[in-house]
User: Fold these one by one.
Assistant:
Number 1:
Amino acid sequence: MQMERRKFLESACKACLFAGAGLLISELTACSPSANVTKLPILGNTVRLPLTGFANGSLQIVQPSGWLYNIAVRKTGTDQFEALLMECTHQQNQLIANPNGFKCNLHGSQFNLEGRVVKGPADLPLKKYKTSIDQDQLVIQLKF
Amino acid sequence: MKYLQTLCLLLVISHLTTEAQNFTTTNAQKLIMTNEDSLLMGMGSNSQKTVISGYGSAYYQRNFDQQQSTATLERAVLFVGHQFSQKISFFSELELENAKVEGGVSNNAEISMEQAFLKFNLNAHQYLVGGLFTPRIGILNENHLPVNFNGVQRPMVETLIIPATWRELGIGFYGNSEKIPLNYSVALMNGLEGQNFEHGSGIRGGRAEGNLASANNIALAAAVQYFWKNFKFQVSGYTCGTVTLSPKGSDSLGLNSGAFGTPLYLGEADIQYEKNAWSAKALGTYIAYPDAGKMNTVYGNNTATGMYGFYAEVAFNWLFSKKSQASFISFARFENLNMNSSIAANGEGIYDGTEDQSYLIVGFGYLPTPNVVIKADIQLLHTGPQNPALVINPPPNALPYQQNNQFLNLGIGYSF
């Protein structure tokens, strides 16, 4: 009986820990400032991003299939979008998105949400892709 | 026979070339990229891109207590990077400190590799590094360019407690979550050389910095970063063995050797905030070295069993606007550190009040563009009293120790 009680307490504690961790993760996800990554296939030099995703926020992160860099797509106005390659223009490191823009952990370069350099050593803005709307999808042209 | 050798050589080269091409380009990218596109994006099969850049700083300092002024070209650092393929790159930083090293004799000058490592991209979110690199510990160690921190001098806590720029040889794994704004890193490196710790500079002297490092003892570092609204949180930890001797050598001295023998632990946490013209940061760190007493008995370094440091900084950019490239940032930073917050018992450590230091730094930085900075600040220093037991054979003209001092710092910096 003593052992059963101990096992019960151990199990209950573990369950509480898992539940707490789950709640914490869901809470962190809920207040996440950056969007989830959407993996998209490349079709004819383009990727097509459903516009419905922008209902939850103005920023979407897109990963074209097989690419080593993501594209940040930001809704800037009604039917207006900006697509930036998340590649540091200093030494080609992948960038991390945050609410104020994009940061490179390699040398500390920072770019604002428009892709302009805020902190060096980078001195060129992020590369932009052309976008257009086709019905309920945003079409991102992958060729410059 | 010679023809056969040549044929074999050609076959091997041909095979290697084909393998390299297969490795560097995915089918999807081959479909959509011309060579020009690939070069533009630095991703393609034929892109071989060498980048040269760098940073540097110079300063003037007036020490009011000692009535002494100094000017020096503090650092000139040359970056050379090369992209072998879309997945493999090389990064390096070659640093010259204080401008001149002549005939192997230096006046606090140094030529060193600050970093030299290969980076292997695994995917868009994860990569490996191998070589001499700066692990993610604190704020400054990864981001130490003069245009990116306030003050002519780097924060003292990240100089004397976290010995930035702290680089060691090893491998590191870096990544970020696709679901939540979280970055992580783990690094395995050579450990610190405990016999080289020096009283007055914490663990700084124990860094091998890629120079014939002992690999008998190793180090493990890990960090997690999380972004929330305008905040960035980081927690990092480090542990290593500090005895470089073999078991034969260390046993006779009563020291524990091995990978994590005679361990040292470092913990750090920091918060950074940025919103429009305002920015702020706070950092705290603690080092525990439980067996410092044993090391002191053998090496006589008077290393402490515990050290801590923290700082907080607030800054405001008077020229902030979404279109302005220029910044005029005024800031204030308070720092407190103690390189002997706890010492070994039984007379194996001697307390030194001068290692308990507080700094107040107030100043500004003007950046006409993000990569050029002109800085000025006033630094007020207060320390604990000097321990007379540690003053051995003072020079006849030595002045009484002053617990308070003031400095004027003027500096310039650049990066590109």
Note: Chain B touches chain A through 58 residues (CB under 8 Å).
Number 2:
Amino acid sequence: MITKENVKHITKLARIGLTSKEIGKMQKELSAIFDYIGQLKEVDVSEVQPTTHSIILENVMREDKGQASKNAKRLIDAVPEREKEFVKVKSILS
Amino acid sequence: MTQFLNLTIPKIHEKLLKREFSAIELTKSYLERIKKKNKDIFAFITISEDLALLQAKKADELIAKSKKVPILAGIPMGIKDNILIKDVKCTAGSKILENYIAPYDAAVIEKLKSHGAVFLGKTNLDEFAMGGSCERSAFGPTKNPYDLSRVPGGSSGGSAAAVSSDMCVCALGSDTGGSIRQPASFCGVIGMKPTYGTVSRYGLIAFASSLDQIGPITKTSEDAKIVLEAIAGKDNKDSTSIVINKKLQVKNYNLQNLRIGVPKEYFEGGIDTEVERIIKKAIGRFEELGAKVKEISLPHTKYALPVYYIISPSEASANLARFDGVRYGMSKVKSQKSKVKSLLDAYLQIRGEGFGEEVRRRIMLGTYALSAGYYDAYYLRAQKVRTLIKQDFDKAFQKVDVILTPTSPTPAFKIGEKITDPLTMYLADIFTIAVNLAGVPSLSLPVGRAGDLPVGIQIIGKPLDDYEILDIAQAFEQKYENS
């Protein structure tokens, strides 16, 4: 059972601001979805290895070498608030 | 303008080379059709007219001077709006990216550009590809061209509706749990999800990275093969990309002795009776063509949906952390709930308002499943059951060459019918999800109509058998084209 307190805690972790009405709705919906997901408990997985990717992959290595980006100007231009080349953010410590 | 209706890629190529029409004329006729039809269907979010005309002009120049013209040169395409085209708006169907201009080309776009393809515009989708109906787009729903009161399916509903209503020759979609195949089934077109890794995901706005795959939506299997050949391949910018055996196009693939498995779990309850009748008739036709059909079992089928709704939201919660309003996208909220004093306030408000209901729900779901104390119970367990689902397919493919199932348990449903209950909507993808978890290739082929509504059959292949399942679909198509 997911409580309203659980939901409030998760909104902070997920950085999603919800109104108290939205939190109530989310609590009901998430509870129903996790009830449904609960059927996974009946599967015996004691001898099973987890799958992260369906295709077996070896670690892919490459040389750690810097490359010039052709897109630097476009990337900076996409920043909503900036000063010269710097990205502007609200104060982090309050 | 009837000469520009319902053309396939090889036909257009032939006519362009014979100078029956130019790429510019062709592109203009498609742009006109979009202008006429898009008001009702809303398949396109953005129409990239200037780019399309420029690309068409280049294609004509190539045809004028070159002896070797790529088959995709001058072909008007639609591109799902979660795939980046440099200098074109890319919204992912979300308010948070409403004004985002893509700074670079996705790997698939770079490849299609090198083949001379023409991009007519960006097609509608459920926000961040999360949904099965296209109703979750922040810019309004796409309508099904067969019945405007119904959904086109999702999330690549814009691409499927655009191909179906001939607003483009072919399109790209992306498929995380059925998002290419289910809308293809609803709109009566071919939709294919390649083997995981076949197509580079670089420049696809990530939803669930271990499941996402780009693929073609087309009018014929041959067209799908042509598009797949153009976009497939190893890419250094996507370390999960692989090389698949490229079998050159087999004309007249022989279905004689093809071993087909039909999993009994896909016919147990919850399936529309008309859909069941059409699928069984199609399976019978494969038998008539010489295939050997037998019943098989994929015993963990019923767990695919719950596994998916742990794994995909978990991956999504991490992937969507990048949308913070700091580096790009929406940076100010419209309704100031409270004064934004700190960076944390800004995050909470931008993400609370910028993401739609379904996206917020999935991020919350994934964050909860990955949070301290729950990881083993949810995420790790889901990954283990994923192994069992994959093993079901491995075992089945020791006995059969392909697996046939319905693509969706129902034909296209009414707009508004499933939107209020998230679980009901999730169940619409029940037949397509296991394929993504196992990573195998699969396509939806139209095989009949339930009333006026198209119904597709799903052909699932062994890993790397992408061209084989397209050959099989083509062999079936050639035999039963007009039925």
Note: The radius of gyration of chain B is 22 Å.
Number 3:
Amino acid sequence: MIVGVLALQGAFAAHQDRLTALGVDAPAVRTADQLARVDALVMPGGESTTMSHLLRTNDLFGPLGSAIGDGLPVFGTCAGMIICATEVLDGRPDQRSFGAIDVGVRRNGYGRQLKSFESDLDVSGFDDPFRAVFIRAPIVERVGDEVEILACHDGVPVLLRQRSCTVASFHPELTPDGRLHAMFVESIESPS
Amino acid sequence: MIRKYADDMSETGTVTATFEVKRGLAEMMKGGVIMDVVTPDQAKIAEDAGAVAVMALERVPADIRVDGGVARMSDPEMIEGIQSVCSIPVMAKARIGHFVEAQILQALDVDFIDESEVLTPADETHHIDKFAFDVPFVCGATNLGEALRRISEGAAMIRSKGEAGTGNVVEAVRHLRSIIGDMKRITQSDQAELFEWAKRLQAPLPLIQEIARTGKLPVPLFCAGGLATPADAALAMQLGAESVFVGSGIFKSDDPSPRAKAIVEATTHFQDPDILAKVSRGLGAPMTGIGMDEIDTRYAERGW
């Protein structure tokens, strides 16, 4: 199985490290050709405006949108979550997203860097808490009926799943704990 | 090894301003371009071009070089003007050792502080205690020892200094090669040699031992100082930088917007010469630039 990591900008190398540690082939994806070769895709944290701009200039928006429509499993973290959402608040007017998961998110909803934080999360199905790092994170303000909430922080959903799309408003790639990546890889192998 | 002045906010172990949280923002800027801007209009051009952050300052380094005199922190009103028009992180510069300028920048809610040699140093011996702040810091370095001293003071990002305001990439290359070259040599050293490395670099032994294990700095390494073209950005990235700062190179060129966009593309596709050839076309004249033997003041020599 090949789990590509969108590598236009951001913390893609850390995601590749987590996946490689699980024994998964995790090539960087920067072009439509590279996208065509993967079984699933991780969209990393970074600047969502930059990524959205580069998806457009590199003619990736169309092919990636079609692939997601055809059921390509995706895991979006932070900026990656914004790009997967149906609704983006406080984004740029030209910012586009894929609508792969029915949530409304507000960009930088927790505030600027001084409001960034880390915290323990109780994740559905995990025995022990998961240490999560939130960096200028998007905040989930609306969750569709079809969406499963896997973890919350102070009552706000921060880890969610709908069909083959999983999103987190935090950064599982910044901590050595590989459990969320393992959960994503498992969901590709045996879709629910 | 890292001291944390962090505030525990709740029983769920929610904390702000940890080293992981500070370094985390630097991680998010990897593979990107941070652009110097002096007006809200320039900040919009930078964001539209795909910048991952902007550095808000009153004069770009090329103008500071021409004007001379004392260069200080920017007017808060000017920084707030830039914060109000863009949604990407806003960085601002404080003078080396000027911890009160840093306190003011933190009060303004900037996302990152650059303790920068481009401004006139305020302290000839001490850098800012960066652990005393909740906002993350980036500092310049010309060699590995300098980088590790800044990290031991709490920097969450290192940028190779280069020579700001020259449009000449030669010093950026020298500093990047020096930092990365010494890291490569340290990974080849035995345990006894690591003590000698710590002594020679005037750097903490635990950080040297960490590099011997990992081959890299414990924080992201970006490149700054003299980059003016898409090829310069890709050169820095191929040499091992994880992102680039472009200062005077964009807004001192003939046509800033297309150049800014091209440098963003070049930083993403730094290993693809076909794309680099495509984006380098028709950008108009870059900033003129100056040779190292033509300048009186080397900013890179500031910092200790």
Note: DSSP finds six helices and twelve strands in chain A.
Number 4:
Amino acid sequence: MITLSLLDLSLAALLVVALALSSLRIYPEIAGQLTIAAIRTAIQLTLIGLVLKALFASSDVLWVALLSVFMLAVAGREVMARQHWRFSGWWGYGIGALSMFISSFSVALFALIIVIGNDPWYQPQYAIPLLGMLLGNTMNGIALALDRLTSTASEQRDVIEARLMLGYSQREAIAEIRQQVFRTGLIPIINAMAAAGIVSLPGMMTGQILAGAPPVEAVKYQILIMFLISGGAGFGTLAALHFGVKRLFDERLRLRLDRLHKAG
Amino acid sequence: MLILEHLSCVVLQGISLVLEDAELVCLSGASGSGKTRLLRAIADLDLNSGVVQLDGTARDAIDPQAWRRQVAYLPAESRWWAPTVGEHFRDPASVPFDQLGFDKAVIDWKVERLSSGERQRLAILRLLENHPRVLLLDEPTANLDPQSTERVEALITKYIRDARAACLWVTHAIDQIERIARHQLLLDNSCLKTAVAA
């Protein structure tokens, strides 16, 4: 594999700088956001590179667990930050984080222990990238789904209550909303799987090929990852839907929009 | 028989009320006095505290779905969610549409083409489909013409008589109160007062 020098990266960074400069005139705020995001990417990825280097050297299960929990905590914050209508209190953070924990962690464990079967199963070279990809994708699905759930419940309050007044069950009262929310959570991965290989060459596979892996081996890993991600995102969305709906209604089947607050 | 003791919600404090079987009570009060809040609290749609009993059974002992079928609340403005009228009824074939001036073809009518008066009359039929023990009606005839108003009054009073149901009917029309109710309550400053029939 050809190693990249600092100069190589700087050349690529010129592209971002050029873009920032040209966007100054159209929309100065975007130029700022672009610059900050680019700097964040460089710093965050360098840090995780150093962390992974140290982690690979030690291979201690405790450190793997610690990093996993840290990644989950950040992902939970990100899910909350993307909600226009948030559940008040700890629920705003908890529903997203818990759903991601249930889906990403169990799917990652399933993949590491049963599918890949490494020894030891927590070997960080496999465990961390796998969990990272799972968390990133389930985070997207769950954030979209929860945002859809809370915003449609707020918009369609009258219809939901009209059905409750007629003695409909909670499930009947929000039937279409459930469907829409579930669809919203799954659409990104469905699109990604449908376009894979034709429109887009997925990043992980491309990376393995660049690193010199035989294409067919890289493809097998990519298929595995796609299936794992759809499981993680799908079950994560289901979990978020379950907890979210539970929180939207109380034990007397009242729609409790007072448990939401508008962000920002 | 519906009994409220010290019912309180966001804007109302300590409301007590007894609605006897086969009794129709009219409720009036200035706008903003909390009439809608009271009906919503009885139907358990908003957070509320106090004792509510139906035929001697506490509300908390009754499943919320069953409660709202028995203690039926008609909001001032009805909501429709499916394209056709029939989809909003559990068993459209057995609904007495003719009693409020519709023929059976109404089942296939498009909701978006209904007038506000038609919506209101259909919402009343939709509510009665649950055979409620108590009716909580929020200005049910506010946007109806005199003929439809008369039909609705006849249908509701007949239902109350036949099913021995109780009814709390929010209205401002004095002539209507005289036609349908023996008792009139006035909601004022979180207090229910018996109004003397004019």
Note: Residues 215-248 of chain A form the longest helix (34 residues).
